[in-house]
From TrEMBL:
Domain of life of the organism encoding this protein: Eukaryota
Transmembrane region(s): 132-150
Organism: Geotrichum candidum
Protein name: Uncharacterized protein
Keyword set, alphabetical order: Coiled coil, Membrane, Mitochondrion, Transmembrane, Transmembrane helix
InterPro entries in UniProt: CCDC90-like
Cellular component annotations (GO), alphabetically ordered: membrane; mitochondrion
Location relative to the cell: Membrane; Mitochondrion
Length: 200
């Protein structure tokens, strides 16, 4: 009987030791789990803060890059506008220079044409005047020759119509030139010299 009681006491003691160990293990497990939860929460908070800091830094970098891009675009646009304005001014200057050269060339051509026309008109007028003077000289020479011939014929007719008396001497024409013939030759020579002067 004593042995049975001793065995039961030993069994109860072992069960109580086992229950205490289990309770101790459960407590340790709960403590470890709580500590692990705390660590995980801290790690999550640290990671969240780090992620927030990285996100803020990325946002600042994006804003800076966007601002620099806008400044670069503005600078490029200003440079392009300046180049376009310079090109426009250059084209306008070139167009003005071309217009000036065309105007100068037009004026030069007009002056040359007018000068040539004046020269041709002057030459034509001089030629017409010379021809008119030649014609007038020919007419005057012909008139002078006609008048001289008319006077000569008239004198010859008068000489032939004079009656010759009996015993009168018949005049014999002399070999020397008469005054009318000398005048005729001088008028003819003057007309020829005048024509030669006009032709020169």
């Amino acid at each position: 009987m004593r042995d049975i009681l001793t065995e039961r006491l030993e069994a109860v003691r072992e069960e109580s030791i086992t229950q205490a160990a289990a309770d101790n293990d459960a407590y340790l497990f709960e403590a470890a789990r709580s500590e692990l939860r705390t660590e995980v929460q801290k790690l999550r908070e640290l990671q969240s803060a780090e992620y927030g800091s990285n996100l803020a830094r990325l946002q600042r970098d994006v804003e800076i890059a966007h601002q620099e891009l806008n400044e670069s675009i503005t600078t490029m646009k200003s440079g392009i506008d300046l180049d376009i304005n310079d090109r426009k001014n250059s084209n306008q200057q070139e167009a003005s220079l071309v217009d000036m050269r065309l105007q100068e060339l037009n004026n030069r051509i007009s002056i040359d044409i007018v000068s040539d026309m004046k020269s041709e008109i002057e030459a034509l007028r001089w030629q017409t005047t010379r021809r008119g003077l030649t014609a007038v000289t020919f007419v005057l020479a012909a008139m002078l020759i006609g008048i001289s011939l008319g006077k000569k014929n008239e004198k010859e007719n008068q000489r032939k119509s004079v009656p010759v008396a009996k015993g009168a001497e018949i005049p014999v024409p002399m070999l020397t030139s008469s005054e009318d013939e000398i005048n005729y030759l001088e008028e003819k020579r003057f007309a020829v010299e005048t024509l030669n002067e006009i032709d020169k």
